[in-house]
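Data card: per-record layout.
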Amino acid sequence: MTVRVQRCIDLDEALDAPARARRIATDFLTEAERACGGPVSPAVTDAVLLVTSELVTNAVRHAPGPCTLRLNLYDESVLVKSATPAPAPRDPAPRTLPGRGGGWGWTLIARVANEVRVTPGPGGGKTVLARLPW
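The structure for this 134-residue chain is written out next.
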């Protein structure tokens, strides 16, 4: 499987990390349009931005230290990965009413992604991977 477009960035645990991650993902999608010779569908754009934002938001909220965001475009899919020093998967937060907390991100990611998995990282930490249709 050949990577057509890729981005990798280390984000600190600042509260603006999700917004910076969305800007990186937007740039990634613009480059993907050029690489593929046509526009990215709005559904794919929305899914990539949603998953990127949710993964980085979860990293900032629940993992100590920085987060590494990777975006890879393959012929048939986009891979969004978030690697953090947090050692173990945690149970999804209970869902709350809109405007009163969280708990919906993992459900949304699972709904738009073809594959979601959490793998342990070397020396502790973990990587959360979401594969989205292209």
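Known properties of this structure: The mean pLDDT is 87. The longest helix spans residues 42-62.

See the next section for split statistics.
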